[in-house]
Structure formats: structure tokens, C-alpha cells
Amino acid sequence: MSEPLLRARDLTKRFTVRGPFGRKAEFTAVDTVSFDLRLGETLAVVGESGSGKSTTARMVAKLMEPTGGTLEFEGRDVTRAKGAELAGFRNDVQVVFQDPFSSLNPRHTVERILLAPLIYQGIQPKGGKRALARELMERVGLDPDHSQRYPAQFSGGQAQRIGIARALAVDPKLVICDEAVSALDVSVRAQVIELLRRLQRESGFSYIFIAHDLAVVRQIAHRVAVMSEGRVVEQGPCEQIFTDPADPYTRTLLAAIPRIDPEWDRRRRAAG
Amino acid sequence: MARYLAGRIAGLALILFMVCLFTYLIFFQLSPDPAVMICGKTCTPERIVQIRTILGLDEPFLSQFRDFLVGLFAGRDYGSGANLIHCPAPCLGYSFQTSQSVWEMIVDRLPVSATVAVGAAVLWLLAGIGAGLLSAVKEGTWWDRTLMGLALGGASIPNYVLALSLQYVLVVHLQILPFPSAVAFSDGPVLWFQSYLMPWVVLATGYACLYARLTRANVIDTLAENFMRTARAKGLSPVLTMRRHALRPALTPITTIFGMDFAALLGGALITETVFGLNGVGKMAADSIAKNDQPVIMAVTLLAATFVVVGNVVVDLVYTGLDPRVRIR
Amino acid sequence: MSELLVVEGLTVTFPTTRGLVDVVKEVSFTVGRDETVGIVGESGSGKSMTSLAILGLLPRGAVTRGSIRLDGVELLGRTDREMRRVRGEQVSMIFQDPLSSLNPYYTVGLQIEEMYRAHRGGSRKAARKIVTEALTQVGIPEPERRASYYPHQFSGGQRQRIMIAMALVCSPALLIADEPTTALDVTVQAQILRLLAGLQRETGTGMVFVTHDLAVISTIAARVLVMRRGEQVEYGTAEQIFAEPRHEYTRMLLESIPRIDDEVAS
């Protein structure tokens, strides 16, 4: 088997919590989390609030320094990467956030938002900037003629597509989706997930998909890591997690998902 | 809690020490030679040297500063032998102008400033919060627009313009109020009230306008909170909904601002006191600055800083009592 | 048996800068005693406006037409003073975000107690006993002590339990639950749904359950109203909506739900 794209070993994050009257307490948000991710693969990290999944994502994106453990990207240790090395890493790893509107500058046009990563990284796209912006919009299913509009003129689902297009602008190897579809309506969410899958097929990058919703994860993940109280309680191929969960917590999570009566589902499908 | 308090008091002491250091540095090192000022026009070089020795001005900065700090807490002596002058703690030195003990000057004038500040505070809280509340409840109506227009106007009038206009109309023209002066309460409550009424109104106007806008904004924000919807969904009366659920969250942040404003005012209302000729700390500050009376400038600066810093700690403590979310578990 | 709540041709109009906008158009449904009716829709469907209209809690400026009858008595057109007797006493409501729906400045005990006393009067002491009972009923441990806690001292699930305890303290005939589990973790959601269903069986309260989540609705509602852009798309029994949807939109919504068990079964 080839070298993994990303290798996390014993990632740990401890926070010092200051009480209102100066009392200190230590709190371990992420506790020795390890995983490998190959190119073209999607790893879903699922867990409830406070499980440490978002902190893990932030450490992997190097938006937060881990307290302990190591992070290797393409065989290089990037745990304490700085300067040019960090800039290179940022080029390869992009993040799509939960709230599309608060993560897009409301005063910038879509084109400017999409090209910003290129400008920060000092890249001149072939064929010109305008053409690239149009191409990116087309790839995520937006009308390229809308490149001069502002985020507020788009719906939530469209805004999230802009966020995705921005991530794709620098041709990343890894896209981290931090609850990227959680705030979307169910019909829009299905479309955005389909888009994410198509983009992966086309470009062959990897996803780390952070979600609290197990059902959504099943549609996109190759492998799943279930987190609870800062630890990975179970990790394995997607199908195995859903059909043959080993950990009791995973089973609790699965059992808690509300389901439509399978009999009703069957009848509807038979009719439709 | 005890640890927290100890920490806060230590921080407070440190800040006051820094304030002392910097005011001392600025006034005694950067301004003209005090000995020349004290000595006056008919002065011999010998006399200047003598004064310098008495005041300790010939010593290096740090030892002068040390003497000042010691004087604050333990008192100090100026000169020696028959010329010895003992200045009891807290020693803030003697005025270059009047040779009075600066501490005694403050003790004399502080009640005047406090009277001005307390009266004005009562006025501006009543008027400001009242107007703000009314405006918020009647948001977008004629009431709201009128009150907020007045508040904007009121906040734009300079203190002295208002003071002089009021004085002209009420004292000179209509003659329904006496000329303001620092009348003691024991001289008769009515006269006392009449004498302070104008300073109160003048000082309160600016604050009241500010507080009205602040209150209005806070109340409007609070009315939009989800828990207000809950309160209505519970079927509570509008009075209870307003009084219990809206007022406390809306007014709690105002206590912080009020604490700071009030503390700052205790250090003297410079313009108001000067315009009305009230012998308070503010007027003392203005006079001392005009005449470069360094010990007095130093003292009023320290006094104002102390009020603000202590006020800050008091506000924080009060806040923990008002907002359960910042309380200790 | 007569219906508890009858909503007929409910239309809610808002004045906006672009003229009058109907956020709810001609919506009709009924809720029987101890029945749960689900209102489901995506954002902007008007589902929350419909539920707020029942209690007369719409934002200022909204105009409501049609008819809302509770126990045969018309609620529309009543004054705020008259509606106050309905709110909390006959119809109560719980909301999506329990933390912001509770006042952070007061203990949860006081917030439940004031609701009881607003409708039933009585001494604080007597009300406190009721508060303890209400908290026990929703599964808050050590209810007597915890009544003196503030909202921020509870977990998200417990806060929603407290909201439910408050909503039921006057034994209303109808409970409106507006996205009550949306902000909660999935395991906590399951607990709250179980609690609501259990309490309903015990007390016989009718319920209007508003959510964007079809799967949640399918587990709790007997009848379902599907809404889109203020309009009623479809209204029927849960079985009919989920097994034989008549409208294309309902079908599309159902197809969008990610499936957990599909491949497992095959």
C-alpha cells in the first residue's frame, strides 16, 4: 500500500480553562487521536457536541497548534511547520466551514472571494483570473455570469457552493469539510453532498468530513472515525461502522437516529 | 472569592503605583523649577537653593519619588531644625500658591464635588433610563423620535453654554434661583437644594442624553431576545414581562458604565464647578493647572485615578452579583 | 369527538419594503385531543409562523386572516389581554434553542413558578411544590435543589426538559413544539422525543410538532402537514404522507433523506 497523504499520530489538545475567579482547570478536548488518510479517500469524523471532532479538524488544518502528537503530510512532519513550509501546506489543504455566509466576506464579489486564495498564495492562473473564476463556478454548479454578485444575493446552498469553489481554487489535495452541510435544508443538502462526491471523482483529492449526523456520513465516507469525549472510540470502513458497529457508543448513536417506518418506505418506493 | 479579591486588590495597588510614578515623572521632571515658582519675584539664588533643599528637589528623581510615597503612607518632614515642618500622612505636600496642606484642601472640597456628583447622578439615571425605556417601548413612534432627537440635541450642547444660559434665565432674568454656591446642607435644605440645582441639571444633561440612547438600545435588544418570546408565550402580564424579564438584562450592562462615570465625577466636575464657581475638587484642579501648582495637580490626578480604579473593581464585584452567569459556581 | 384545534384558511401577511408578502397562505389543519400533528417544511416554508399565529405571538405588523378555533372558540381577533389567558393556560409552546429561550438572570424554578402563579395564583410556597413535581416529571434529578440553578448550569437536553416542564405546568390542552430537538445531539433528541411521547400519553395533551426533519415527524406525529413557501403542499395521516405521498415535493423531500438501514436490510 502506498504512503498515506496524511498521517495523524496521537494528536492531543488540552485547553486551560480559566474560571470566572481565576481558578484554572485543564480540559482535554482531543485525546491521542490517530488516523491515516490516503489520496482520494474520504474520512468522516463523527461525534456529538463536545466530542472533539471540530478541534481535531482545526488541528489537521493547522488552524490550531496541537498540545501533543504529530501530523505528517505526504511523508513530511508538518506538526510545527512554519513559513514557506506552512504556506505550501495551506495550499494543499483547504477548509469549508459550516456557516457559508459568515465565512464569505459580504463586501467582496464572488469572483474576488474565489480568487483570494490564489492572490494570497501568489499564483497566476493560466488563461487569466476571470476565466478561472468562471470555470470554478461552473464546476460547483453556479451560473458563471453571477461572478460579480455578492454573497447576500445567493441562497444558503449556493453560498456553500461558493465556499466549496473557493477551496478548489488552489487545486488542493485535501479538503476539510467542517459540518459543511449541517446548516442546509435537507433537499439542498442532498445536492451539495452529490456535488462533493462528483468533485472528488473528477479531481481525486481527499476529504476529511466532520459531521454530527451519521446518516449524512454514510453517503460520502469511505472510512468513519467515531469520536466521543475527545477520543476515537471506533474507526473502520464505512459499511462496517453502519452494519457491524463494534463499540457500544457507536451503536447508541446509530440507534438514536430517527427513522421512517421501513414498511412505509418500501411501499412508497414500490409505488414510485 | 478571597483569592480573587486579593488578586484584584494587588492589581489595583500596582496600577495606582504606576499612576503615581508617571504623574510624578511628568509634573516634577518636565515642568519649570518649582523652587523658582515658590520663591516669587524677589528672589535670591541662595533662597532658591534653600527651597530646593527643604523640598528635597536637589535629590535624584527616584529618591524624591520614594520620599513622596513614604509621605503618602507615613507622613514626612520638610527641612530641619527650627525650620522643620511635619506633614502628617497622607502627605500630598503643600500648595505652592497658598502653602496650604494639599490633603486638607481635598478634604475641604471633596464634599462639594460629591454633592454635585451624587445629585447629578440621581437626575441623569432617572431621566436617562426613563426616557430610554419609554423610547424603546414606543420604538418607531412619535414619542421615540422626539425623545431621541432631544437626546441627540442635549448631548451636543456644551456644558458651559447650558450653564450660562440657565444662569442668565433663572438667576439673572427670572430671579427664581440664587446664584449657585457651595452652601452646606446645615445652612438650610431649601437654600442648599436651590444652590445645587443648576449644577446638577447642567452636569446631568449630557449624561442623561447618553444614558437614554444606551438604555433604548439595550432594551430594544433585550425585547428581541428569545426569552422575551417565551415570557409572552407563558401568558405573563406585560408589566411582569417588562419589569422582570426585560429590565434586568437591559440595565445590568448600564451599571458598568454608570460605575465608571460616577467614579470619574467624584474626582471633580471640572467645567461645571468652574462655571458655577463651586469650590470643589474640579475647580481646584482647574485653578492648579492654570497656576502650575504642581503638588495640587499631582494630588487631583491621583485622586481621580484612585476613584476610577477603585470604581472599576467595585463595578466588577457588583456585576457578579447582578449576572448569575459570571458568578462563582 | 370534537377536534381540539381547528385551523382554517390561515393566512399571515407581512408588510415589507416590497409590499405585502404572504408568509402563510390558506393553511388548514386540525388537531384532535391527545393527537400529535406534525408541520414539516424547509426554511422559509412558514411552519414557524403558523405555530406562532396560533398563540398570537407573531411579530408586530403581521396581519392574520382565516380562523383558529380552540375547543370551538375563535382565537383570531382576540385582544392581547384575552390571549394572555390562552397562552400557557390552554396552549403552551416550546422552542428550538432552550438556552436563549430561558432568561439567564433567573433560576429555572422561578421561571416555572411565575408561569404557574400568573394563571393559578397562590403562594410561592405552594407553587414551589408544583415546580418540584414538574421537574420530577421531566426527569431532572434532585429537582428541589436544581430548581435554584440558573439555565446556564444545565446541559442542552436538560434545558429543553425544563422548557417542557414549564410548558406543561398548567396542564394545557395543546402544546406547540417548534423545532424542539433541532439544536440537540442525536442521542439527546431521542430522549426528548421519548419524553414528549410519554408525557403526552400520560396527560392527554394535543401537540403541534414543527420541524424540518421528516424522520423525526414520522416517529411522533399521527397526521402531517407539509409546507413550502407558505403554502400547504399536502396534509394527511403520517402513513399516507410517508407511504403514498401525492405531491412531487413531498416525494422529493423523502428521497433526500439519507438512509441508514437500506443496505443493511438487503
Overview of the molecule:
- The complex is a heterotrimer of chains A (272), B (329) and C (266).
- Chain A has 272 residues and is of the alpha/beta class.
- Chain A has one domain: P-loop containing nucleotide triphosphate hydrolases (Rossmann fold), CATH 3.40.50.
- Chain A is 38% helix and 25% strand.
- In chain A, strand 9 (223-228) and strand 10 (231-237) form a beta hairpin.
- In chain A, helix 3 (110-121) crosses helix 4 (129-139) and helix 3 (110-121) runs parallel beside helix 5.
- Chain B has 2 domains: 34-91, no CATH class; 105-326, MetI-like (MetI-like fold), CATH 1.10.3720.10.
- Chain B contains 13 helices and 2 strands.
- Chain B starts with a helix and ends in a 7-residue tail after the last helix.
- Chain C is of the alpha/beta class and 266 residues long.
- Chain C has 2 domains: 1-35 and 58-77, no CATH class; 82-212 and 219-229 and 239-266, Rossmann fold.
- Chain C is 41% helix and 26% strand.
- Chain C contains 12 helices and 10 strands.
- Chain C has helices at 47-55, 80-86, 98-101, 108-120, 124-137, 143-146, 156-168, 186-203, 214-220, 238-243, 248-256, 262-265, and strands spanning 5-16, 19-31, 36-40, 63-70, 73-74, 91-94, 174-178, 206-211, 223-228, 231-237.
- In chain C, strands 6-7-8-3-9-10 form a 6-stranded mixed β-sheet, with helices on both faces.
- In chain C, strand 4 (63-70) and strand 5 (73-74) form a beta hairpin.
- The longest helix of chain C has 18 residues, at 186-203.
- The N and C termini of chain C lie far apart (44 Å).
- The model of chain C has no long low-confidence stretch (mean pLDDT 92).
- Chains in contact: A-B, A-C, B-C.
- At the A-C interface, helix 6, helix 7, helix 8, helix 9 and helix 10 of A face helix 8, helix 9, helix 10, helix 11 and helix 12 of C.
